Amino acid sequence: MDNMEKQNTVLIIIDMQRGMADPKSGRRNNLSAEENIRQLLAAWRVADRSIVHVRHMSRSPLSVFWPGQPGNEFQDSFTPLASEHVVEKNVTDAFVNTGLERWLHVRGIKDLVIVGVSTNMSVEATARSAGNLGFATTVVADACFSFDRLDLQGKPQTAEEVHLHALSNLQSEYATVLDTASLLG
Fold it and tell me: Which residues form the Isochorismatase-like domain (predicted)?
């Protein structure tokens, strides 16, 4: 896979915080996402490639992602190493008011691999911005997940449907959508 072959490809892991496992989040799809993210993280670490961990810092004291709450902490498997960059965001898009774009440009990084949660929120928003900013962007479908949602008409949408719609929105227009095996292949 071209992105895995490029030494200067960064892995961006979005919002893999303890709060994502909170039952309040609801039913989700892709129960193997964490294992796939761990495989990608391990591959990037072994290859000594750049890794960016994105953490959502909610502006609402009622949120599990409010700073200082246990839900705001990274899941143990995704705790950044001292050498890995951490971006803190307050909105879904990891590029908004975080300095991420500048950090990437300063290092000459043009290729991004995006994983994390949730597919239809922070992953999609970040991938859209990345594509619009000219980065060659890959989203790893089986290293992301979504939650059940109601559509605008109040009709239930399964997490699988939400996930698939978000990835379909990204494919070809903003990003290339692959699975973990294809990327690491």
Answer: 9-181
Rg (Cα) of the chain, in Å, rounded?
Answer: 15
User: What residues does 147 pair with on adjacent strands?
Assistant: 28
How far is it, in rounded angstroms, from Cα 122 to Cα 164?
A: 15
Describe the strand order of the beta sheet including 9-14 as a list of residue ranges.
Answer: 85-89, 51-56, 9-14, 111-117, 136-145, 176-178
Partners of 86 in beta bridges: 53
Which two three-digit tokens encode residue 167?
A: 């990835």
Q: What is the pLDDT of residue 50?
A: 97
Domains of the chain: 2-184 (3.40.50.850)
Question: How far, in whole angstroms, is CA 72 from its chain's centroid?
Answer: 15
Could you give the count of Cα atoms lying within 13 Å of 140 in the half-sphere of its Cβ?
33
CA dist 119 and 146 (Å) reads 5
Q: How many whole angstroms separate alpha carbon 112 and alpha carbon 138?
A: 6
pLDDT in tens, 144-179: 999 999 999 999 999 999 999 999 999 999 999 999
What's the pTM? 0.95
Residue with tokens 């494919």: 171
